[in-house]
Amino acid sequence: MAEGSDGLAVRPYEAEDESRWDALVEASRSNHFFFLRGYLEYHRDRFEDASLMVLDGERPVALLPASRHDQIVVSHGGLTFGGLLSGPGLTARRTLAALGRVLHRLHEDGAEALVYKAVPHIYHAIPAEEDLYALFRRGARLVRRDCSAALRPGQRPRYSKGRRAALGQARKLDLEVGPDPDIGGFMRLEDEALRRRHGVAPVHSPEEMELLAARFPQNIKLFTARREGKLLGGVLVYETEVVAHAQYIAGTEAGYAEHALDAVVDFLIDTEYRDKRWFDFGISTTEEGRDLNAGLIRNKESFGARAVAYDTYRLELGG
Fold it and tell me: Is-contact 75 244, C-beta < 8 A?
């Protein structure tokens, strides 16, 4: 593990580092439970881990959750986003040095490029965009920009006229809306809905999501609408300190007809997460961000959400 003149050194993550890794994730300005090793490791059979630790002496000061894909390193292939995680002590100058050491290590290990999926700003507890400046200084190219949509629950704009009308109809149907433990049942509904509408399967199987929810019960939560016990639709939420993110949304045909999902989303925004800084609906783009699903984002915007960019950069490591 060679040390640079800046006093920083970089080495691969090892199993015995788990507690120190998790401690820095939880102290980072971009704290998200899916950077914890208990989440990263659950799909280790799908991704070759290439995570790195930046050390100042023996003290970890930054982390890069990453996976290796032949000669490309991605931060991280199994996550929506990732990046250089650090506490407030890693200033702009030190971040430049830390990224430089990371890139040097990746090049030494034979990687040809780093694909860097930056953490969107709404997931920062306090500002944490030194990495974007460091990427710019190194000549990274923006290669993908997905369009998400988010709102501030306590300061949201008024719902659209059509959304208000749909909620009015839902409220007349005596729906049972609230937390629900049946994550497996909901994920089977999600699987059916995605296959029927788009011909694809969810990223997570029912069994995987049940496993993750058991590991992270304070972060992975299901909210549904039922009538007479029958599941009509729901939203599976990934919750962090500052963001409640709609990871999966699915409904039955009867549920759509009865506006059950409108009732669930309204409950999340106006009741469950009213005091959360952000409610994030997730991306509405495909084809590397170049195709916008107009109907999907219009649905999110009708609740008052507006665009948030999820950016991906590529940095060549040759030379």
Answer: no
Q: Are 163 and 127 found together in one domain? A: no
297 within some domain: no
- pLDDT tens profile 197-224: 767 778 889 999 999 999 999 999 999 9
Does 201 reside within a domain? Answer: yes
130-186 tens-digit pLDDT: 999 999 999 999 999 999 999 999 999 999 999 999 999 999 998 999 999 999 999
Both 181 and 264 in a single domain? yes
Q: Check: CB of residue 187 under 8 Å from CB of residue 209.
A: yes
Of 5, 18, 88, 21, the C-alpha closest to 54 is 21
Q: Where are the beta strands (DSSP E) in 136-277?
A: 141-151, 176-179, 220-227, 230-239, 243-251
- 203: domain range? 153-276
Let me know if residue 299 belongs to a domain: no
Distance CA 60, CA 64 (A): 11
DSSP run (H or E) holding 171: helix 161-171
Two tokens at 267? Answer: 């409950």
Rounded CA gap, 257 and 266, in Å? 16
Task: Tell whether 138 is covered by a domain.
Answer: yes
Number of domains present in the structure of the chain: 2
How far apart are alpha carbons 29 and 243 in whole angstroms? 13
- Pull the structure tokens for residue 227: 């009538």
Matching residue, tokens 């780093």: 114
